[in-house]
TrEMBL record:
Record's subcellular location: Membrane
GO CC entries: membrane
Chain ranges of the Ion transport domain: 88-280, 480-624
GO terms, molecular function: monoatomic ion channel activity
Protein name: Ion transport domain-containing protein
Topology relative to the membrane: Multi-pass membrane protein
Disordered, as annotated region: 704-736
Pfam families tied to this protein: Ion_trans (PF00520)
Transmembrane segments: 57-76, 82-102, 123-142, 182-205, 217-235, 255-278, 399-417, 423-445, 457-479, 485-510, 594-623
UniProt keywords, alphabetically: Membrane, Transmembrane, Transmembrane helix
Amino acid sequence: LSFKVSFPTLTVVLPLLSPNEDLLLAAAYVSDAQFNRNVPFETSPQAVRLYHFYNHWTMWAATYFFIWGDLALALFEEPALFPLPFLATSIAEVLCLTAFSGRLVHFAKVTPQMVFWKDTKNICIVVTIVLTLIDLITYGSLEAVNIHGVRWSRLIARKRNEMLSSQIRRAFRSNRNTLPDILYVFLLFIFSMLIFSLMALKLFGDRGLRTVEGSPYFTNILDIAFELYVLVTTANSPDVMMPAYEFNWWYSLYFITYVITNTYIFMSVFLAVVYNNYRKHLKNEIRTLAYLKRHKMIEAFNILKVKVGTEFVVKEAQWRQLAKIVAPDISSSHLELLLRISDEGQKGDVDKMNFLRLADLNIQVVTINIKRHPLEAWMPRVYQSSPSLLVQKTVRHRIFVWVYDVIILINAIFIALDEKNPLISYAEWLFLSLYIIEILLKLYTYEPRAYFGRKQFWNCVVSVLLTSSLCLVSETLFYPRFRVIVTTLINIGPTMLTFGGLVLVVYYMFAIVGMEVFHGKVHFFDPSSTGPDALVCGNPALKDSAFARGRYCRNNFNDLAASLILLTELTVVNQCFPLLADGFALVTHQASKLYFIGFHVVVVILIVNIFIAFILEAFFVAYSLEKSEVETAIEKKIQELGVGVQEEEVQDGKLIDNVDAKDSGFSGDDGDNKRRALKGLYFRIASKKYKTVDALPQQMFESEIAPEDEGPSLEEILNFSPSDIPPKSPSFENSA
């Protein structure tokens, strides 16, 4: 069902147009449902083939390669960390623009023309590409006559790359959806801060107070507002209060009231509003994705359906072909299992309700090959003898794990003691021997290929570190009690990377602005330099400033790397925030403080709070994972067919022959009997892991949609709003 298209450095497998044109079209719909895509593509045979190619992983990999390559050009363009000739960077940028244009033309070929030009995303990409070319030509012309220009297109490049990346675009949409409600709270916060600023001006402006540096204290309304804004971050506390506090201790009540009102109340309200809006828009997006998925699957079913008796079904042969196109890497045993689940009556066809499950082929079903331990085959009498069975039973018992828990704790205490003591030194060898004995006993009890299988990550790590005499560290770090947290962090990793990409894009934008405004204003000199310029960071305006005295010269905007590091320091919001802002205000203008305030508002107040809301939801979902109805139906069917392994609570990392620790279902004597009885291939749902935080609520929402419910129309689905009420279900409401 495929053919190869070869390029000098790329070989891509494209779907081949089979005699049944409808099969590829149905596969496109199912693939869109599987990966939550909503692209109104053309349904002609050529457009469908191009659409399959558009969604091929190599195309996405190439797109992201050029996106990051385009962003990385800031490292090589002036002001550059690694300077390259303008000709070299301009050629690289033209190549990136060509790739983006090709990607856009490819997309235009698979979508209706009217739909393409109504999409704001496409218009933004076209406009930014044209503006970037204009800026590139203008800047190059000015450089040719030795006139310094400004590469303003770097900012719109960020917007273009955001539009090209669907994941970053989705993260940006989460931020944008939160803005309207948080704006009202922010305006109230600004109003409160200005009221306190006016109060400070009246309280302290005419008292002749001075700061430690000798400058007038709270005599300018703008300076007061900036200092009070910084006080919200606690970066200048208690320094900003000290002149007034030294004059009269009653004035401390003013600052205490301000901190309680703005730092604790308003910042907490910010988080509450962001979290509430994140959950609200998450529910709306989940609902939209669920109904779009149902809509796509119904479209696919309607294409392939044939009437058998009184109902419409999809024939088994077409179902097989469709499944192989949608999931080409699926194993034959897995495919047969899913077919037997879908074809409940073994009639040779799949009805509508079961066909809708085809989009969930990405639910991982583990194929378990039950095998005997090699020693059982080589020495059956010895391995099945009473002493041997006693050893195996002991190793499988939870007390065995508890004993080694105590050993680990004792080992930790010994490590904290003096290593020069011979007794302590020899004790380490004793502990090392005990850990080796533990591994040998487990290898004797559990089938070796199961113990070191590809799903037994922890066993492999422990064994490798043990051979490096670091077993305590491995056992302590990867002890089963901590696996829930570690596994949760791994599961939310992809979405965390998406948010990380969004933060990096925002950093990039502020870094570009910072380089254009502050480039060359501050210079770094070797620490051993004692020249007058070194004492003022190369700028006389910094003479006797806290910036120069603190040796902050390295914190500058002279290249992209330095700019990103400085912005990272600002994100931490410690005492360097006002110091850096004051320093760059001295070398430019006091209005430049707005740059630093804007960065704090966008990154710390908005994005960081959204990230916190995401983490809260992620851990809530991770700690309350329950299999969706789709998985439950599949697992029940596996058991009904007699080819399933029941999932039970597996504690303390127990293993079964050739079965993952988290996927095993045998223990004790009963497990010994089952191992003898079971042979061949068995299946079960792999684990309760989801690629994204909203995947579980989405599947739970899908389970609430009746099989016969075709849902709203496509136009209604795309116009869903958070104010609409989703189906009433405690499970969905609690998880999303």
